[in-house]
Amino acid sequence: MKKTIFVVALSIAGFIAVWRFEPGPVQNTSAIAQAPPPAVTAPSTSAAPPTTAPEAPATSSAPPTSSTSDTPATRDTANETVTTQGSAESSRYGTVQVQVTFTGSRIAVITLLQAPDSGRSLTALPKLQEEAIKAQSADIDTVTGATETSESYKTSLQAAIDARGKQR
């Protein structure tokens, strides 16, 4: 009987510890979030002119001259690298703001400009980034246990996507 009480007490203590657990800072998230923008920004200016030159002859040889004036603009837009920022969205757990780099109309990179530095959002934000890139939109599921952070992330991401639409 004494062993049963001891086991139940330890089980309850273990459940409470797991229930109250909040993960600490993730080292890789900040390194990954800070590394892509310089690498993506530099090629955007130098990569756009070289890709335009080879594509223009291919475009002019394939369609008639009446379509040639429209096609290079379409080609430039399709290969263009554009970076937009979403709105800074605050919740009681912190502020979330994203920066989205588009290659053509596709989301290439999502960078966190502002993010909470503690709590469950540290594990939720990388999941949200991965899902948003897969979905190519802000229409993604929230992460259980980080609902407010997920909603802030999706709102900021949608603002960045909308900003890209206004630039066209």
Automatic annotation (TrEMBL):
Q: Which GO terms describe its cellular component?
A: membrane
Sorted alphabetically, which SMART domains does this protein's record hold?
FMN_bind
Q: Where is the composition biased (Polar residues)?
A: 79-95
Give a Pfam family name: FMN_bind
GO MF, one example: FMN binding
Enumerate the spans annotated as FMN-binding domain.
92-164
Show the InterPro entries listed in the entry.
FMN-bd
According to the UniProt entry, which residue ranges have a biased composition of type Low complexity? 41-76
Q: Where do the segments described as Disordered lie?
A: 30-95
What is the protein named? Uncharacterized protein, contains FMN-binding domain
